[in-house]
Q: What sequence folds into this?
């Protein structure tokens, strides 16, 4: 399956609005995790696979292909993968969501008296 692109119909939207294309891309299993892991710097295929809980190599290849097509990831001549400038921008855009998710988790899991013993 080809990577979602703005201007083309995507899952959940026939308009191809950029936000809908981005949500389709990031909604695919592992894509957000790969972007998050690559935010730490370039890494080889096997190391990335380990960081992503040893996902299958075929799925990792498929997801990397999608992210390369989407211009978020690039493969260096030494075969490591890294975020592009656009990929780093996606990571920066996700950080507020990560902070929000921590607040959300705290709200849903308040400490009860039994938890403190």
A:
């Amino acid at each position: 399956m080809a990577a979602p692109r703005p201007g083309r119909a995507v899952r959940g939207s026939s308009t191809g609005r950029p936000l809908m294309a981005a949500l389709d891309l990031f909604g695919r299993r592992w894509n957000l995790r790969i972007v998050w892991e690559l935010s730490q710097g370039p890494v080889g295929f096997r190391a990335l696979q380990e960081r992503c809980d040893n996902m299958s190599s075929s799925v990792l290849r498929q997801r990397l292909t999608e992210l390369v097509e989407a211009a978020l990831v690039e493969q260096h001549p030494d075969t490591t993968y890294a975020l592009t400038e656009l990929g780093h921008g996606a990571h920066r855009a996700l950080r507020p969501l990560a902070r929000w998710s921590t607040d959300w988790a705290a709200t849903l899991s308040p400490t009860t008296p039994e938890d403190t013993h």
